[in-house]
Structure formats: C-alpha cells, structure tokens
Design brief:
Rossmann fold; 3-stranded antiparallel β-sheet; 19% strand; globular; binds ligand FO1
C-alpha cells in the first residue's frame, strides 16, 4: 500500500467520478487526497449560483449524498419546490429544501467577496469533508453542447431536455481566458504527489472542461508522476448518464478503446473493467499501460477496492512514465 506521506490528485465531475473519489478518500489518510472539480456545469438559476459537480463531490465525500440520483442530498424534502410551483416559478431544475441551503449560503459568501475556491473550502469545513475539493477555476467556464437543435447550455441540455437532443460537439465558453484556481497547479505538481487520476466521469462533459484550461492541461502533460484514467465505459455502455449516447452521436465507437484514444498521450495508463479484458492488447498497442479490475462500483467496498487498485497500478508505473 502507499506511503502516507504521498498525495494523490483526481480530476472529477459528479456521478461516477464522485464514487471513485470516495473510494480514494476511504483508502487514503487525511491530507492525501485533492479533488479538482469540474465547474463547467455551473449556472445561475433562481438568483443562485449552482455548482452541481462541486456539490455532488462534497455531499458524496460527506456521506450525505442521495444514493440513487447521483446529485442532491438524501432524505430530502421538497416544500420549496412545491411552493415555487404554486407561485409560477421554474421547477424543472429540482432544488431540495436541504440542498437549497447550500446554494443560498454559497451565494451569500460569494456576494461578500469570497472566491468560489474559498466558498468551497468553507462549505467543506461545514460538512466535515476531509479531502481538499478544488474548483478547477474561479473564472467562469460554461460547457456548451452543440446539437442538431442548436447550441445548448449544459443544464438546458442535461436536465431540461433530459439529454435527448442529438449532440454534434462541445465547447467550453470562457476557457481561453480562464485560469486554474489557486492550489490547482500545485495539486498537480507538488513534491509529495504520487499520481494524477482521471475519474470515471464523462470525458466530454466533465473532464474536458477541466483540460480546456491551458495551464491545467500543460501541467498534466509535463507531470513527472503517472497519469491514470479510469474508463467510464464498461462493455460498450456507460454506468450512468449519456456518455455512450454522446460517443455514438459524435461518431465514436462507445468502447474503452475510444476512451484510450480520447485521452491519448495525456495519460500513461487506463484502468478498464474485467468485461473489457479482450481489448487490452488494442489499448496497449497505442502505448498505454492497462490495468484490469472490477470498475463497476456498487458498494463502498467496490469503491475502496477500485481506488486501492488504481493506487497500486500507479505505483507500479511509477518509473516508466511515457
Ligand atoms: N440533475 C437532473 O437530472 N435533474 C435535476 O432536477 C437536478 C437538480 C440538481 C440540483 C442540484 C445539483 O447540484 C444538481 C442537480 N442535478 C440535477 C444534477 C446536475 O444536472 C449535474 O450537472 C449533472 O448530474 C451532471 O453532473
């Protein structure tokens, strides 16, 4: 197992990425885990600043996330939504009563001059989250989905239209002028760093917004530690969400081989599920190392086992980075 003076940094969206981050948090000691959170899903709504992937990561690492939806809080009530509905307000984006407090508190702290990084640290402190959750940027970056019905802002596509439109491409508005948030580049380069992980989040919707920031991507390209991705695709399907649908719509075969090709030279290794073991050779032919284990995470034990495997796999690659 890993030495406890080593640290690990993971790039993550919500959903599957948060489960992997929880697994890492379970097997690592306090102070060993940094999470770089996607903020491309963020949007202003009902006068609030909604940060879905930051909140899913916070709630998951605090052990209070809704276990089924992949977002929001468990044991939630919906009085606010019901009242807003009666008043004619927008309720397509569901805000639970307890979840609402997070958004109101974030808005209040931002209005008082705190940065998103500072607000996230404060909220994590309030929820006793051990890991360090770092927004990718304090500057606005908004994921836009190009579809046959026009260009859609992320939440309009993902929630309002339930990812139904046919996607043709993506862009990350604001990425050219945005910079990594404080602490992010250090988390990708400090001396104690042992590995950088790309969580099994949607590459186009959750990871590429992070990589669209030039300073983050170049720091990862020049990393002196192994960069390991966990495939979000298992046996041609996504565990949850539109990853496979997006791949088909943009002309990609929804396979782990396409995931390997997408990350390309940015990564040294790819971890795939046992069900895709037959594709190991094809992926190794592209120059990547392949780790094979169960990547489907149902229980806490599954999450911890995948995290432990990823750490051991990274350590085994330690020397021979590409
Ligand atoms: N996703 C939905 O599919 N429906 C919702 O009503 C919804 C509400 C919501 C509220 C707060 C929050 O932090 C996330 C929420 N999400 C909802 C998830 C959000 O759309 C995320 O961006 C996606 O899950 C992708 O990460």
């Amino acid at each position: 197992m890993q030495a406890t003076d080593k640290t690990y940094t993971v790039l993550s969206g919500g959903g599957g990425g948060a489960k992997f981050a929880l697994g890492l948090d379970q097997v690592l000691a306090e102070g060993q885990l940094q999470v770089i959170a996607n903020t491309g899903d963020d949007f202003e709504h009902l006068g609030l600043k909604i940060c879905p992937d930051i909140d899913t990561l916070m709630y998951t690492l605090a052990g209070i996330a809704d276990p089924d939806t992949g977002w929001g809080l468990r044991d939630e009530s919906w009085q606010f939504m019901e009242s807003l509905e009666r008043l004619g307000g927008e309720t397509w984006f569901r805000l639970g009563d307890r979840d609402l407090a997070t958004h109101v508190r974030r808005k209040e702290l931002l209005a008082s001059g705190s940065t998103l990084t500072e607000v996230t640290a404060e909220l994590c402190r309030s929820m006793s989250v051990r890991a360090s959750i770092l927004p990718m940027s304090d500057d606005p970056v908004s994921t836009q989905i190009h579809t046959t019905e026009g260009v859609l802002p992320f939440q309009e596509y993902f929630v309002h239209l339930q990812t139904e439109p046919t996607a043709t491409g993506f862009d990350y508005a604001g990425c050219d002028s945005a910079h990594a948030a404080p602490g992010v580049l250090a988390a990708l380069g400090h001396d104690s760093l042992a590995a950088i992980f790309i969580a099994p989040s949607n590459p186009w919707l959750s990871i590429d917004p992070i990589l669209s920031l030039g300073d983050i991507k170049s720091t990862i390209i020049n990393a002196r530690v192994p960069v390991i991705a966990v495939s979000p695709i298992v046996a041609g399907k996504a565990i949850k969400g539109p990853t496979a649908k997006l791949m088909k719509e943009t002309g990609l075969d929804p396979s782990v081989t396409s995931i390997a090709g997408h990350y390309g030279d940015l990564i040294d290794g790819l971890i795939i599920d046992e069900q895709d073991a037959g594709l190991q050779g094809a992926i190794e032919d592209t120059g990547l190392q392949v780790g094979i284990t169960q990547t489907v995470m149902k229980s806490h034990e599954d999450k911890a086992a995948l995290a432990a495997f990823a750490i051991d796999f990274a350590i085994s690659l330690g020397g021979n980075k590409k």
